[in-house]
Structures are given as C-alpha cells and as structure tokens.
Inverse folding.
C-alpha cells in the first residue's frame, strides 16, 4: 500500500492586498481606491496526482513559490485540501521547522519534553528516548540551560535530534538539512540514510540538488503548483536546469 | 464527542506539558513565585471585603468566607476565558508548523486556571472551615462534582471563544468587557437574597449565577442547592460543551490559514 496517495490535489489560499481588517480601513477605502482591499485566489497546488511508495525516498524540487512546502504541509495535516483527496498512512514526523514550540525561557530538557508531546509522544516514551536524543544532539552539557542561551546551530541540532527520534513511518523534510556545522550535517545525512534503509518513507523538499540526487529514489519537479515531470533524479534535475535557464 | 475525548487522552502529555509550561513561565523570575497565585485572590478579597462589608455594609456573618467561595471560582472562570481567546491565535507558530489536536490549546488554558483554583482552595478552605461556626456537613462533598461541571462549562465556552477569535479578533475585547461586567451581575459580592424578589428568579436561570449560588450553598450555607440551580449547573455545561465543540470542530481545519 502506498504511504501517500494524492488524487487531483489542489490547494487555494485567499490573499488580501491592503487587508481591511477594521472599519476605519474600510471607510478610507470607500474614498481612496488605492487603499481598498483586494482579495485574490492563489492556487498553490493545482490537481496534483501522486503516489509515494512505502519505503521510498521522494524529493521535490522547483523554483520558489511552486507549492513544494504547501504540499508538505498538506501531508502533515496542517492545511486541509481545497479540492481532491489526500491519504497518508501511519505516523508522520514533520520536519518543517526545527524546534517548533521551543520556548526561549525553558531549558533544553524541558523543551525536549514539550516538543515530543507536541508530536503526540507519551511521556514514558520520551523518558526512554531522552538519553539518545541528548547524545545525538551533542548538547549534554547544555540541557539545563534555557534555550535562549543556545546558538542558532545548537537550537537546530536539538530540534533535529528530537524529530528523528519520533519513530515515524513518514518523514517530511522541508529544507532543513543545513543544520549546524559540517560535522553535524554529515551526521544528519548519515542518520537519514539509516532511516531510509530501515524502510521508512521520506518526502523531502530541497534546493540542494546534489543532496537530492544522492538521497532520493525519485524526484518530482514542481512548477506553478503542478508536477511538471517526475522520475529518475538525474533526469529530473537536468530538466529543472533547463526550466531555470529558459525562465531566468 | 468521543473523538474529542480520545484526542485529549492521546495528547494528555501535551496538555500536561502546556499547563506546566504556563505555570513555570508565569512566575519565572519573580521572587514570590507561585505564592502570587494565592496573594492575588487574597488581596482582591481584602479590598472587596473592605468595600462591601465595611463601607457599603452588606449585612452578613463571616462575609470574607462567603465572598471567597464564589470569588475563587469566578477568577478561574474569568482567567480561563481571557486566556482561551488568545490560545489559538497566540500559538500560531505551533499551528502553522505541526499538526496536533487544536482542542488541546484552549483546554490547557482552562486547566492552567483550574490548577490555580485548586491550589487556592486547598490553602484557604481548611482554615476557613475550621474558623466557621457552621457544622461540617456532607454537602461540602458536592463541591467536587460542582467543580468538575464548572470545568466542563468553562471548557465549552473556551473552545467556542478560541475558535471565534481566529475569525474575529474583536472577540478578545468583547470577552474582556463582558466578563468584567458579568461579575457585577453575578451574586458574588452580594448574596442573591438581597436582590428584589422578581430579580432573584432571573438570576437563577443565569448559568454564571447558578454556579456562584451553588458554590455558596454547598460550601458556605452547607445545604443542597434548590432544583432550578441544580438543573442549571447540570444542563448548561452540557450545552456549552456541545456548542463549543461543534463550532470548534467546524473551524479548526482552517486555523493554520487564518492565524
């Protein structure tokens, strides 16, 4: 059974220019057309058909604003689809942003517990994983410090370490592999390879084409909310270069 | 309804951590810390006692005790609602980045306020019961189901308000002024019996007044509340929860786009 199945999946956002949220702005808009609110439909995804096999590593590439992150958020259950259907099997670990919900005044340890519970992990499970999370992040000496004292690299290392310990069936990775220094980056990539070879499904969005080519079994090129082409990484990346040349 | 309970149970760790986070953060850096949770009602109580008992001369035995039994639950109610209006919009960073049952946010706002109510009751009640001349009666135990019904009632309203705030930010301001005004329309600083007879019946149909009267009955007067009050505190929580949950469920898929 496929891990992710999308049929004619579309997502539309309403964007307002000069959002008229209160009466005053509306009143001014009556007289000054430049300050009038204009609502527009923005179709971030248009009829995407997609099937991700269990255990597959799928990459999304494409220019900014092509709908890659929106697609990932739909898979994570954050946005509902506007049209079409989307089915996701099993537990999802969204790595859309690292350290979501970290509070600057709480310690590293407190934040780990808060963060894992956000992903629905019971407390006992976190107790069991805690040492491994700390070890992977390499921050054993800083766990009792408030995270506001962390460097941005440390912050991301802790966030990354929590998410890869979630033991999910599907990992959604949004452009977050530029984590920490070179050594930690290597460690993350190795860990992802390990997760991949253990049969977990990975869907990733990245502009790091070399990484995409190395990691993914299949790549989709997304342009203007549609899948332009999908298939073997090298060929799709080649096509992306062509698209970028003609549009740039 | 069952889905709601299942989500709450599955994500109890999150609720626990959110409440704990708020408790830790609220008093972090203050010298007196959690003692403020007690000082705040105590100071309010002192000033209200002075204003109503000493100056305006509300004639009552043991007025401070009378005031406390419904003032503390009121503070729980009002703090819950004020916190819950912002519970979705102020957690936009979470809602836009990860999926979890959104109900946990207003529910944990309510439980955070409830934890403070329990603390205050645990500290103040034994002393007051010991000094009161009225004999201890079994009706005191009715306060336990009453507290639970109060939580359900408040959670229902919290769900409703937190969802509506994502569409209309005005709800925050409206709630603020409404709660403040309702305080004076609820028999907390005065016993309902000093109101004109025609008004008394009206009071009893108001769920907020019903809760205040019920607390006063079981904890202060030590008697079983009359039927209409009992009916109110049973029916309104059920209605509030059903309506609140229905609205919340309808609106929650759109939260990530609206906050």
């Amino acid at each position: 059974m496929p891990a992710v199945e999308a049929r004619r999946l579309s997502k539309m956002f309403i964007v307002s220019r000069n959002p008229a949220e209160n009466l005053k702005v509306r009143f001014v808009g009556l007289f000054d057309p430049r300050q009038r609110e204009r609502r527009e439909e923005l179709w971030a995804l248009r009829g995407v058909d997609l099937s991700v096999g269990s255990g597959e590593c799928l990459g999304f590439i494409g220019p900014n604003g092509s709908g890659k992150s929106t697609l990932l958020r739909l898979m994570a259950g954050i946005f509902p689809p506007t049209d079409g259907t989307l089915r996701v099997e099993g537990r999802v670990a969204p790595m859309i942003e690292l350290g979501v919900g970290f509070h600057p005044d709480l310690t590293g340890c407190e934040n780990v517990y808060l963060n894992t519970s956000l992903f629905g992990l019971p407390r006992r499970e976190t107790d069991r994983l805690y040492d491994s999370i700390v070890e992977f992040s390499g921050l054993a000496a800083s766990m009792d410090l408030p995270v506001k004292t962390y460097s941005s690299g440390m912050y991301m290392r802790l966030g990354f370490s929590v998410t890869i310990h979630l033991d999910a069936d599907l990992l959604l990775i949004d452009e977050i592999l530029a984590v920490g220094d070179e050594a930690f980056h290597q460690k993350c990539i190795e860990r992802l390879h390990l997760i991949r070879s253990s049969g977990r499904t990975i869907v990733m969005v990245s502009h790091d084409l070399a990484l995409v080519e190395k990691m993914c079994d299949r790549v989709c090129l997304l342009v203007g909310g549609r899948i332009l082409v999908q298939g073997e990484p090298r060929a799709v990346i080649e096509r992306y270069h062509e698209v970028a040349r003609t549009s740039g | 309804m069952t889905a709601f309970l299942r989500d709450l149970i599955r994500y109890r760790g999150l609720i626990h951590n959110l409440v704990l986070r708020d408790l830790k953060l609220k008093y972090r850096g203050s010298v007196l810390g959690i003692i403020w949770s007690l000082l705040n009602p105590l100071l309010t109580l002192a000033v209200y006692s002075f204003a109503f008992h000493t100056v305006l001369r509300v004639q009552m035995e043991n007025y401070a005790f009378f005031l406390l039994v419904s003032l503390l639950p009121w503070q729980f109610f009002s703090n819950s609602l004020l916190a819950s209006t912002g519970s979705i919009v102020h957690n936009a960073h979470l809602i836009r980045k990860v999926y979890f049952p959104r109900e946990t946010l207003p529910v944990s706002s309510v439980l955070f306020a409830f934890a403070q109510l329990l603390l205050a009751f645990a500290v103040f009640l034994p002393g007051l019961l010991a000094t009161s001349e009225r004999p201890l009666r079994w009706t005191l135990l009715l306060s336990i189901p009453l507290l639970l019904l109060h939580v359900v009632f408040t959670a229902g309203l919290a769900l409703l308000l937190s969802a509506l705030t994502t569409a209309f930010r005005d709800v925050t301001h409206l709630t603020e002024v409404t709660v403040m005004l309702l305080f004076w329309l609820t028999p907390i600083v005065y016993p309902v019996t000093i109101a004109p007879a025609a008004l008394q019946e009206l009071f009893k149909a108001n769920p907020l007044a019903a809760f205040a009267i019920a607390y006063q009955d079981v904890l202060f007067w030590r008697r079983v509340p009359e039927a209409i009050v009992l009916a109110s505190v049973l029916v309104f929580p059920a209605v509030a929860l059903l309506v609140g949950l229905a609205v919340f469920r309808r609106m929650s898929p759109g939260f990530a786009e609206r906050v």
Remarks:
- Chain B has a mean pLDDT of 92.
- The longest helix of chain B spans residues 104-131.
- Chain B touches chain A at residues 10-11, 13-14, 16-18, 21, 24-25, 28, 93-100, 169, 253-254, 256-257 (CB under 8 Å).
- Residues 164 and 171 of chain B are 7 Å apart (CA to CA).
